[in-house]
Amino acid sequence: MPFIPKLKLRRTKRYNVLNKNCFLSRIRLLNNSEIECTLNVDSTGLECLEAVALRLELCETRYFGLWFLGKSHQARWVELEKSLKKQLDKFSIEPLLYFGVMFYVPSVSCLNQSITRYQYYLQLRKDVLEGRLRCAVDQYIRLAALAVQAEFKDYNPFETHDFLGEYMLFPAGWSQDKALLEDLLHKVALEHNALSGIPQEEAEIHYIKEVEHLDGYGQECFHVKVCRWGKM
Q1: Chain region(s) in the chain for CATH 3.10.20.90
Q2: What does CATH list as the number for 10-101?
């Protein structure tokens, strides 16, 4: 077995550095877990994205990208053809990267692989829970039930209602009325029960199809500064 020298990490103000030519980048995935990638200081954003895709066994990378929080606390997409470290040094508030959907598709049929659909589903789930998409109450209930089916399989009358109260089904702060939330949980449980027998991957596809028709789907909002003359 060849001898493998131990690498000593030294922590700088912004990065874990292996040596002067490499740095360790942290990437938060759509399931909120984090991974680390060792990159050359000259590595492009695309090289980092490809490293993430390799970990996820994701081939259809053209829909995805990396972003970070800029110094104005606004999300900023990594320019894939440029040096990643230079972009982080110049624009980011912290070296943490986020993996996510950059280009939304008109139909789930555009996504060929199950892992692509799964990552896409996770992004839409975040979009709904973070309030970026506008839903009617019945749509929230339907989406919540599909998410539960996709992530926990079939309805269990002895367990479902209890864990629904702990599982995030609706946007944070959406309703503070306990009686209303209890009624919504009951309706989600009924809808979930009606989905019994549907495979998890099929539930993800149904979720994506439902979201495709919501107001705001595929849209990205930007904050602009308006000067006193009314120009942006």
Answers
A1: 10-101
A2: 3.10.20.90
* Number of other residues whose CB lies within 10 A of the CB of residue 113: 12
As given in the structure block, the two tokens for residue 100 are 């996510």
Q: What are 80-135's pLDDT values in tens digits?
A: 999 999 999 999 999 899 999 999 999 999 999 999 999 999 999 999 999 999 89
pTM: 0.85
- Please say whether the beta carbons of 121 and 150 come within 8 A: yes
> CB–CB of 57/49 below 8 Å?
no
Residue 14 phi, psi dihedral angles, 5° rounding: -120, -25
Q: Which residue has the tokens 């009606």?
A: 194
Q: Cα dist. 9→22, 24, 125, 184 in Å?
A: 10, 9, 36, 50
**108-211 carries CATH number 1.20.80.10:** yes
Distances (CA, A) of 180 to 44, 130, 186: 49, 20, 10
| Angle (deg, nearest 10), helices 137-152 and 178-194 | 60
